[in-house]
Predict the 3D structure of the following.
Amino acid sequence: MSIRIKSKEQIEGIRNSGRLAGETLKYLEQFVVAGNTTDFINEKAHEFIIQHGAKPATLNYNKFPKSICASVNDVVCHGIPGPYVLKDGDILNIDVTTILKGYYGDTCKMYTVGKISQEAQDLIDVTKECLKIGIKECYPGNRFGNIGYEINRFATSKGYSVVYEFCGHGVGVAFHEEPEVSHVAEKNSGKRMREGMIFTIEPMINQGKARTKVDRTDGWTARTIDGMLSAQFEHTILITPKGCELLTDVYGDF
């Protein structure tokens, strides 16, 4: 399948949805405290998204039962919000995808609960830098493989591993579009980026081994194979004439 080149109208719609997704993450900060459950945070996210005239894309997507993904500690991605009570020292990834007037915006970030270990903070810092490194590779004419090549080169140089079983993806008109954006790739591999393409970069970086295992009980929750910590950051990215635009960065720190 070919990679969609978005029209000006589509770009504006995706930009608005992306902004709302980012604002949802910002709104949820106040609720990421010890004593709250991940299901409580899910409820707050659902209310916020609905109040802003949008829908959560994950709710009932392939039978996923909640409005956000909430992945704690060794959960790599697709954590289902539930009765888990946050405690001091936890690290939490919240992944939000909004559908606003038919357009999708997709983003995630890491949160910390109370005082976390230095090892956990180092992992978060490296993961955020991995996303920044991937973003630097986003410009017309560059090949998609260079995103994963540079992310993997940096992460492994710091002693971490990069999850290869999940990847970024085209987004905007649908939840998941072409291309797949691998975070581990050969240099100068893949198709070339063109103005008007929109996709996510969402590196998942592990303290230990790169492999994951999906819980058989729910069919969604992906954990590290060795029980060690994992972290992730994600933005929705538009290729522009001279580089790229981050459609979900409401913090302004990328």
